[in-house]
Amino acid sequence: MIDESVWQELEAHQQTPGRSTRRLHADSPHDIHVSVTHPALRRMLLLGTDARTADAVRQEIQGLPATRGLQLNLSSVSGNHYELQVMLTDDELTEVFTPLVSDIAEVVRDAPTTETAAEAAVRRYVRWQQLLRSVSREGLSRQARCGLFGELHFLLEYVLPAVDQRIAVSSWTGPRQTNQDFQLPGAAVEVKATTARSPQTVQIASERQLDTADSTSLVLAHVVLDDRQRGLGMSLNALVDEIRALLTSPSASQRFESLLVQAGYLPNQRDLYDHDRYTLRRSEFWTVGKGFPRITEAQLPPGVGNCTYTIDVSALAAHSVTAETVLDLIRGTHG
Amino acid sequence: MAEHDLYEYSRALVADIQALTDADDGSNPNTFTQYVFEILEEAGVSSDAALAYYSSRGLEIYGYGLPGDGSSLDLYTTDFSLTPLSSKLTKAESDGLFRRLFAFLGKHGAIRPHQVDNTDVHDMCVGAEKALPNVPKIRLFALSNRVSTTSAPEPTEFQGIPVSYELWDLARLHRHETSGSIGEPIKVTFAHPLPCLAAHSEEPNYSVVLAVIPGRQLAELYKEHRTRLLELNVRSFLQARGAVNKGIRETLLNAPGKFLAYNNGVTATASDVDFETDEAGSPVAIRSMTGLQIVNGGQTTASLHHVLTRDKKDLDGVHVQMKLTIVDPAYLSEIVPKISQYSNTQNKVTLVDFSSNHEFHVAFERVSRSLWAPAADGSGQETRWFYERARGQYTDKSAEYETRAAQRKFKLITPTRQRLSKSDLATFVHSWEQLPYWVSRGAQKNFAHFMERIEKSDPVVDVQYCKRAIATALLFQAADRIARTHSAGSHKRLITTYTVARLSLAAEKRIDLDRIWNEQGTTDALRDALDELCPLIMETVISADRHVSEWAKKPDCWDEVSRIPWTLPDVLAAELTAEPFEIASPESTESDEAEAAVEDIPSEEWQALADWAREGRVLRAVDRQVADRVAQRLSQGRRVTGAQARQAMEVYEEALRHGFHPVPVDLDHETA
After folding, report:
1. How many CB atoms lie within 10 A of CB B622?
2. pLDDT higher for B143 or B578?
């Protein structure tokens, strides 16, 4: 993980024009560096690569759309050595850049070959571009705000009390676009938040979301919220701050910040989230298992994919569990 | 052009590029770009081009060139396809290529700060930055191995500097490689037909007219076409390529009206001329000329251009006499060199035949094709080295085999890594002969120098010559691989030639070339020595405060490299032969004379010469070492032979010129 102090150290490092760099993931076979240029103090992530890989990613880089404040360059160092440069070009994204760099570096770290490493880096970069585009000016959409509130609420009320904070934060995988929002050793949890008055259905995003292929228990949590402008409820910011206050471990709080950014909650857009206040009306929990009404990948005819579907809540009565059971599942002490 | 030919050429080109890329573990588009660089250099279109790749959104560049004469800033971009015939390069695509390349002009200043010093891209940005305030024009090249459906865009400008666009697509490359004549023929159209006087000619293949051409027009022609206008000019290969003559310039500046009287004019040839005729049908004026070549008067032309562009004189009232010979293209190569040669006989110009038909190349090809290289890899498969006297011979040869199996066999016996071109040979031999600064001046210049030396020494090209020359190739290739492991990068070629030269110097050329040939490879000791030497060379040649490729062209660089404190490792010293290796059998009388002359000078005097040079800081370090070595050998009663003796005598004469007075050491001894 890298944080602001790494950049500051690099920035203070030298007086002469040039670059100061620091290697990340020394255990990785790939050359990954963070770097700061002098005197302009541009922050960069560098990935060393070779000519063949350059041939493979050239086209893709040329075809990328523009993102204000970020740049991806491919540059030949000498002979067959190249480097991919992810560069911060606008101070507005400074706080986003650190989690972005850590995320790309982490994905690259374990790539088996130079070629897959570079391809993964470009893919991740594209994802960040999409994220930044989607929250460009107005911040997260209403639906995304509500979804994030639901996930954070679940983290605060059910995961943090049950397991060590580091495990708790790491288990929140929603921002990383995995199939479920929480992945704990004993269970996976998919949180559905809604602001509908009396919701009759839950929306399922894909055939993988409720697929329990790997035998861990899967919990579907339904968080029903009431949202008002300036009501008595809690704003997204207040909820974030409450969790921040609980995180005493530096590594956990750093990871949490990075995940927030990946979820599209950008530090420089904080004031957009002050007005919406949420009050919890109720939470419902179901365990997904035998006889649960769902679509799984195995059932689909070959060629069919990306199913979104709804489940009528009334059909789930038989699968309902209590909050206690959910906590047990999270702790891994259930059954 | 036959569609079929283009298809064949395209296929062979892709195969060629892929083979070269695989051998180098490189990138196809880069290899292709380098390949076209060589073609363009040979064609006199551009020179001093280097690879440097950079891309970001809306910007892509593959390389750049800063011709030594400061005439332009060249930028290159590439479109390389592995299936070039499945699609064409559309107008939208080529415009996009040029647009992204043009973007570099505006952004180089922003790119430079985030590069490490001395990387390809860093050097390119620095080069562009330095060139932009001074260059008269910018040229953007797009290179593609697909057929383009459009022509290059119209000229534009960047910050007031004219920008021209050049599109080299598959068809143009193919035309160039097959026609033997280079590039597109130069066509000149006169707005007002140029009056001329036709001479009666009985000869069927050519006719001659005389005309007086405005100086400005000639200068502008040169501005547009540069050395391509002088392709057939004997001298254009020599140092005077586009040189400005002081006297001509003075006349132009001070007495432009008298220029016609003082100057000899130019001799030109054209393959086709469109005349205005009188009633009798004889030519009275020239409307246009196609395939114009100035075969004599290159200096006049270059000086006119210089006065127009650098001295900013408009050349009003300057007229130049022109003798124009219209030659049927089929007879071009036969007649033109003669015109050129005979018009030059009053001057002392050494005529060197640079063509691939020079007897040296013919002999080298003949002998090398008869040699079987010993199997080195234990496969028992003997192989051949393939000398490419003319471009494309290898590909043609392999295309002669109809079946795949036959082709495979050809490739097995003649692997691509064992093909060498004329200019490669010059590189290998010159590295061994300790002329790395010549090698660094580029393939073309180095080759010209190589041929001049061949003319002088006139070596006997026999089996021994070929084996030893090829051994220098093996040595160079070994050094090249080692330079790669040291990440010499884009300067690899320079580093390699300097490494080989320094090793050759340290070993006094006593590295066993015959053994290298017999083993088709280098010994461990030799490789270890190269490995040890390479980083030292890099320190000296690549330094932050100099432009590396410019520095490497200077003899001073070799001077500095030769002074690197380094001695042969003992293991290698044990492998050396007693006598230095000369590639050619010592045939020339020049050597014999030199050998005798060297021995006429006592060793003490050589020592005195070396000491004198050291104290007075005259002569180059290399020369002092020669004197040292000769003194040492003579004092041990050993002989100084061949090239070393010639070199020693040159040093001796140089010392005399610098005021060295030999002190008679022994009164009975007559000093030479």
Report:
1. 17
2. B143
